[in-house]
Amino acid sequence: MYYIALKMLFGDRGKYIAMVVGVSFAALIMTQQPAILVGLLSRTYSFIQDVSLPDIWVMDPGVQYVEEHKPVRDVELNKIRGVSGVAWATPLYKSLMSAKMPDGLSKTIDMTGLDDSTLVGAPFRILKGKLSDFKRADAIFVDFEAAQNRLRINVSPGVTRPLEVGDTLEINDKRAVVVGFIKATRNFVLQPQVYTTYSQALSYSAPGRRQLTYVLVKAKEGQNLRHICQKIEAKTGLKAYSADDFKDVNLGYWMKNTGIPINFGISVLLGFIVGAAIAGQTFFSFVQENVKHYAALKAMGLRSLLLAKMVILQALVVGFIGYGIGVGLATLFGLKFHDSVLAFRMPPILLLYSGGGVMVIIAIAAMAGIRRVINVDPAVVFRG
């Protein structure tokens, strides 16, 4: 009987393809859109993830996301180093700045200044140049992707070239020489990322009594991070987060202050509704057109339970094939665009989520078909 069910399904090729297309579309949207959302949101804390060595980040209490520059006094660094449980603490400068390119145009850059002696927070993927080049006068490292695209230099009308090692920029009327390229994880603000030493970064910034953006803290082994954070806050009046908590702060800020989750949620819902409508309607139509076959089987003595199982089998086959095609297309999309301006990240839980959505669509379609088959009158087959 199951063989007959499959033969009925594959025999009606037009409806079979329409049902698979509907389920594939729903699976694609329910996988691809959340994957883009997850990829986008993971960029809100990508910088914290890249600077993986410190356990604790200390900052001005008003900081809401990692690219926000709210400086504190440099003296706070020594206070933090004196807190019990702290193994070491280093300064970090981070701020958006305006850089004058060799062609005279100004571009906004995301400047990071690393501790001069330890270089804690340095990118671990240096594509061109050496870590020791940070010590050179006026040295800056530039994100390779930005150098190839957003920081291109106009050499003549309509002709541009990438930023190259040896090119000189002006930042606040100070000279900055490109000594190498790094590969940084894309962040949420999408400004070109530039790295230099802490002292060099301060020379590029506007003079002020407060210039330190973050203090990166490593806890001694076995210490409770939350207790150390509390001690730092009590001693300095600043805000201290563990690295994981600071990621959550960044994620929460962008989730709360942008319409991104709502927009993607609407896209996923529309994909589900459209997929369910196409697959459900087509499947019911398929059952309706084959009702005489079911009536004949019923007249031959087949019980309603077996007929229902045949319909479920047909629905499951459509669901699995459609789901596989949809997820496959989403995966190809991710492989193509995962390291581009378009964020994409597909954790396994998303596959379960989209699989659950497809199962609901299939269940709706199967229920409608089963109801029709169970209620069919065997006499239909004899009415011509």
TrEMBL record:
It comes from the Bacteria. It is found in: Cell membrane. Keywords: Cell membrane, Membrane, Transmembrane, Transmembrane helix, Transport. The chain crosses the membrane at residues 16-41, 264-287, 307-337, 349-370. It holds the Pfam family MacB_PCD. Residues 18-233 form the MacB-like periplasmic core domain. Residues 267-378 form the ABC3 transporter permease C-terminal domain. It is a multi-pass membrane protein. One of its GO terms (cellular component) is plasma membrane. This is FtsX-like permease family protein. It comes from Candidatus Finniella inopinata.
